[in-house]
Specification:
It is a single chain. The chain is an alpha+beta fold and about 500 residues long. The protein has 3 domains: about 5-80 and about 160-235 and about 325-385, FAD/NAD(P)-binding domain (3-Layer(bba) Sandwich), CATH 3.50.50; about 90-160 and about 390-485, no CATH class; about 245-315, no CATH class. Helices cover about 35% and strands about 20% of the residues.
Amino acid sequence: MSAKAVKKILIAGGGTAGWMTAAYLARWLEKVDIQVTLVESELIGTVGVGEATVPGIHQFIQDLGIKESEFIKATNATFKLGIEFKNWSGMDTDFFHPFAGYGVRIEDRPFYKTWWSAKAQGYTAGLEKFCLCTQLAKAGKFALPSFDEQSRLAWYNYAYHFDASLFAKFLRVYAETKNVERIEGKINHVQLDSSTGFIQSVSMDSGQVIDADLFVDCTGMPALLIGKALGVGYEDWSKWLICDSALAVQTKSVVDPQPFTRSSARTAGWQWHIPLQHRVGNGYVYSSEFISHDHARKELLDNLIGERVTDPKLIRFTTGMRNDFWYKNCVSIGLSSGFLEPLESTSISLIQTGIAKMTGFLVNFEIDEKQVAEANRLNRLEYERIRDFIILHYKLNGRSDPFWTHVREMGIPATLEEKIAAFCDAGDIKIAEQESFKEDSWVSMFYGFGLKPSSLDTSVDPAKIQSIMNKMKSAIEKGCQLAIPHAEFIQTIGT
C-alpha cells in the first residue's frame, strides 16, 4: 500500500484525551495546511477522574507554550512530588515513591547499592532520608528543583494534581483559538472504504457527514472507531490485574493540600486521595470478586475525610490494551487504546505518549504501513512495561486479606520475574526499551516492600562511607528546612 497523505484530521470524542490531542495538533500544525476537527456530544459523559499526573506533563505544557502559572490557576492544580503508599507492605506501614533518586554516586557506584551495603554493616538511617523530594513531601513543603551540577541532591521532578474537567475546558479554549473546529453531536455511523478498509467518514445524528484522512478515536472505553467499526481486538490483562471496578467521589478540603497522591490499601483494592486547591478527589479501585459494590461503597465512604460533595460514581473496566493502537487510518488515544488502573497515575501520560507516537510516526504527514507498525511496537512495549510495574505493587504486598493473598501468590509475567530476580540476586535494576519507570522508581518499590539484594559488596570502608552519607543527609535536612509550605507556595504562583 502506498503512503496516504493527510490533509484532514477528525478527532472523535472530547474529554481529556480529545482536547489534549486537539490542542497538541493545533500547535504542531500551526504552519501546515491541515484541518483539525473535533466531534463531541455534551450528552455523553466522560470518566473524568484522571486528576494525578507524572512529570512528563511538563513537556506537554511546554510544547503548547503555556505558562505554568496560567495552567495552575485555570485547573486548580496543586503540586505532586510522588505517591505515598499506606498499608501496602503491611498494616500500619507506609512508604513513598518519589519523582527522584536517592543520594549521589559514591566511588562510582549507585547510591542505593552503597546504602544497602552500609545497612548490612549496621548503618541505621533509612534510604528515604537521602531523597529531598521525599522529605519535602513528608513535611508538606514544596520548592522548585535545582539542576545545578553542584547541587545534585536538589535534582528531582514533580507533577500536578488538577481538575480533569477544567483541564479539558482550558485546552478546548486553547485549541479553538488555533482554528480547531468543534462540532456538537453524536456519531451514529462509521463509513469504511470498501477497497482499503480505511475509515472514509462518520455520520452524525444531525445527518451531517464528515470525511477525513486520519481519524483519532477518543471515544473512551466504547472505542467506537478502532473497536466497533474497525474490529481491532482488546488484550485482556485481568489475570494479573484483577481489579475491575472503581468508585469515585469528591469531598471538600478540610486541610491544606499535601504535595503528593496517597494510595491506601483496603480490603480488596486501594483508595486514592488526590488533593486539589478547591476539593479532594477520592476513589476506591477494587475487585468485585472479593468485595461487593455495596460493601466497597461503604468502605470508601467510611474512610473519607471531609464533607462529600458528589455521590460515588461506579466505573467498570477491564485492564488491558488494544491489539493495535493505530490501525489503517485510525489512531486510538486514551481509554479507547487501553486501560491500566491509575495506581501510578499513568492514564494522562499514556494519552501524551500516544499523541507523541502519532505525530512522530506521521512522517511527511503521510500514513505509512512501516511507520504505523513501529508505532504499534513501541506502544505495546510501553503498556507492557507499565503493566509490570503496577503488578509489582500487588505481588510484593505484605497483607493477609484474601484479595491480597491471592495477588501475592498469583503468577506474573516472565519479564517481571526477571526484574525481581535480578534485584534480589545482586541489586541490579534491569531497564528495558520503552520503560516509563526508571531505576529510581524500581528502587523505591523494592525498598518500600522490604526486599534487599542477597549479594552485597561489603568491601567499602564503613567509616568513610557513613561519613559521606551523613553529610548528604544533613544537606537534605537543611534544604527541607528552607522550603515553604506547599499551600503557601501555590499562593505565590503568578505574584
